[in-house]
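Intended use. Records such as the Carboxymuconolactone decarboxylase family protein entry shown here are meant for training and evaluating sequence-to-structure methods. They are not intended to support clinical decisions.
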Amino acid sequence: MTPRLNIFQAAPEATKAMLAVEAAIQKSGLEHSLLALVRLRASQINGCAFCIHMHVNEAVKNGESHMRIHLLDGWRDSPAFTDRERAALNWTESLTRITKTHASDADYAQLKSQFDESEIAHLTLVIGAINLWNRAQIGLRAVHPMETQSAAAA
Protein backbone atom coordinates (compact mmCIF):
# COMPACT_ATOMS: atom_id res chain seq x y z
CA MET A 1 0.00 0.00 0.00
CA THR A 2 1.31 3.42 -0.94
CA PRO A 3 0.47 6.42 1.26
CA ARG A 4 -1.42 9.13 -0.58
CA LEU A 5 -0.13 12.06 1.47
CA ASN A 6 1.05 12.99 4.94
CA ILE A 7 -1.80 14.81 6.65
CA PHE A 8 0.56 16.46 9.14
CA GLN A 9 2.55 18.05 6.33
CA ALA A 10 -0.43 18.90 4.13
CA ALA A 11 -2.60 20.40 6.91
CA PRO A 12 -0.26 21.43 9.74
CA GLU A 13 -2.57 23.93 11.45
CA ALA A 14 -5.58 21.60 11.41
CA THR A 15 -3.61 18.61 12.69
CA LYS A 16 -2.05 20.83 15.37
CA ALA A 17 -5.59 21.69 16.52
CA MET A 18 -6.53 18.00 16.59
CA LEU A 19 -3.46 17.22 18.69
CA ALA A 20 -4.49 20.01 21.09
CA VAL A 21 -7.89 18.31 21.50
CA GLU A 22 -6.10 15.01 22.16
CA ALA A 23 -3.88 16.70 24.78
CA ALA A 24 -6.93 18.15 26.55
CA ILE A 25 -8.55 14.71 26.60
CA GLN A 26 -5.39 13.19 28.10
CA LYS A 27 -5.58 15.80 30.90
CA SER A 28 -9.30 15.17 31.54
CA GLY A 29 -8.77 12.81 34.46
CA LEU A 30 -10.00 9.75 32.57
CA GLU A 31 -7.76 6.73 32.99
CA HIS A 32 -5.19 6.61 30.21
CA SER A 33 -5.65 2.84 29.96
CA LEU A 34 -9.38 3.38 29.35
CA LEU A 35 -8.70 6.00 26.68
CA ALA A 36 -6.34 3.56 24.96
CA LEU A 37 -9.00 0.82 24.96
CA VAL A 38 -11.60 3.21 23.54
CA ARG A 39 -9.24 4.36 20.77
CA LEU A 40 -8.25 0.79 19.99
CA ARG A 41 -11.84 -0.49 19.89
CA ALA A 42 -13.00 2.24 17.51
CA SER A 43 -9.96 1.56 15.33
CA GLN A 44 -10.81 -2.16 15.25
CA ILE A 45 -14.39 -1.42 14.20
CA ASN A 46 -13.21 0.97 11.48
CA GLY A 47 -10.43 -1.36 10.29
CA CYS A 48 -7.66 1.21 10.60
CA ALA A 49 -4.43 -0.82 10.75
CA PHE A 50 -2.31 2.30 11.32
CA CYS A 51 -4.42 3.29 14.34
CA ILE A 52 -4.73 -0.27 15.67
CA HIS A 53 -0.94 -0.51 15.65
CA MET A 54 -0.60 2.84 17.42
CA HIS A 55 -3.21 2.14 20.08
CA VAL A 56 -2.05 -1.40 20.87
CA ASN A 57 1.30 0.19 21.69
CA GLU A 58 -0.47 2.94 23.68
CA ALA A 59 -2.44 0.35 25.65
CA VAL A 60 0.69 -1.66 26.49
CA LYS A 61 2.49 1.53 27.53
CA ASN A 62 -0.40 2.28 29.90
CA GLY A 63 -0.15 -1.15 31.54
CA GLU A 64 -2.72 -3.06 29.53
CA SER A 65 -2.19 -6.83 29.35
CA HIS A 66 -1.78 -8.59 26.03
CA MET A 67 -4.66 -10.91 26.94
CA ARG A 68 -7.11 -8.04 27.45
CA ILE A 69 -5.95 -6.48 24.19
CA HIS A 70 -6.64 -9.78 22.42
CA LEU A 71 -10.04 -10.04 24.11
CA LEU A 72 -11.09 -6.48 23.30
CA ASP A 73 -13.01 -7.47 20.17
CA GLY A 74 -15.07 -9.85 22.34
CA TRP A 75 -15.39 -7.59 25.40
CA ARG A 76 -19.14 -8.25 25.75
CA ASP A 77 -18.49 -11.95 26.39
CA SER A 78 -15.38 -11.64 28.57
CA PRO A 79 -15.24 -11.16 32.35
CA ALA A 80 -11.91 -9.35 31.86
CA PHE A 81 -13.55 -5.90 31.62
CA THR A 82 -15.06 -3.82 34.43
CA ASP A 83 -18.54 -2.29 34.35
CA ARG A 84 -16.93 1.12 33.78
CA GLU A 85 -14.90 -0.19 30.84
CA ARG A 86 -17.98 -1.94 29.44
CA ALA A 87 -19.96 1.30 29.54
CA ALA A 88 -17.16 3.16 27.75
CA LEU A 89 -16.72 0.42 25.15
CA ASN A 90 -20.46 0.24 24.56
CA TRP A 91 -20.56 4.03 24.03
CA THR A 92 -17.57 3.70 21.69
CA GLU A 93 -19.44 1.16 19.59
CA SER A 94 -22.66 3.18 19.74
CA LEU A 95 -21.01 6.35 18.41
CA THR A 96 -18.71 4.58 15.94
CA ARG A 97 -21.67 2.69 14.45
CA ILE A 98 -24.03 5.64 14.83
CA THR A 99 -26.01 4.98 11.63
CA LYS A 100 -27.13 1.67 13.17
CA THR A 101 -27.39 2.62 16.85
CA HIS A 102 -28.47 6.27 16.77
CA ALA A 103 -26.72 6.62 20.17
CA SER A 104 -29.68 5.09 21.98
CA ASP A 105 -31.01 6.20 25.34
CA ALA A 106 -30.15 2.75 26.72
CA ASP A 107 -26.51 3.15 25.67
CA TYR A 108 -26.40 6.61 27.24
CA ALA A 109 -28.03 5.35 30.45
CA GLN A 110 -25.35 2.66 30.78
CA LEU A 111 -22.68 5.32 30.29
CA LYS A 112 -24.31 7.70 32.79
CA SER A 113 -24.33 4.96 35.44
CA GLN A 114 -20.51 4.85 35.38
CA PHE A 115 -19.33 8.36 34.42
CA ASP A 116 -20.01 11.96 35.42
CA GLU A 117 -20.89 14.66 32.88
CA SER A 118 -17.31 15.83 32.35
CA GLU A 119 -16.15 12.26 31.79
CA ILE A 120 -19.02 11.62 29.37
CA ALA A 121 -18.13 14.76 27.43
CA HIS A 122 -14.46 13.77 27.21
CA LEU A 123 -15.30 10.17 26.24
CA THR A 124 -17.58 11.48 23.52
CA LEU A 125 -14.81 13.77 22.28
CA VAL A 126 -12.19 11.01 22.23
CA ILE A 127 -14.55 8.74 20.30
CA GLY A 128 -15.26 11.50 17.79
CA ALA A 129 -11.55 12.28 17.48
CA ILE A 130 -10.47 8.68 16.92
CA ASN A 131 -13.16 8.22 14.30
CA LEU A 132 -11.80 11.29 12.49
CA TRP A 133 -8.23 9.98 12.74
CA ASN A 134 -9.34 6.53 11.50
CA ARG A 135 -11.06 7.98 8.47
CA ALA A 136 -8.14 10.27 7.65
CA GLN A 137 -5.54 7.50 7.99
CA ILE A 138 -7.58 4.98 6.00
CA GLY A 139 -8.49 7.50 3.31
CA LEU A 140 -4.92 8.73 2.95
CA ARG A 141 -3.51 5.18 3.15
CA ALA A 142 -1.24 5.72 6.16
CA VAL A 143 1.05 2.74 6.70
CA HIS A 144 2.03 1.67 10.21
CA PRO A 145 5.68 0.90 10.98
CA MET A 146 6.81 -2.71 10.91
CA GLU A 147 8.73 -4.20 13.82
CA THR A 148 11.26 -6.94 13.31
CA GLN A 149 9.98 -10.44 14.00
CA SER A 150 10.29 -11.38 17.68
CA ALA A 151 12.14 -14.48 18.81
CA ALA A 152 8.85 -15.95 20.07
CA ALA A 153 7.28 -15.61 16.62
CA ALA A 154 10.30 -17.06 14.82
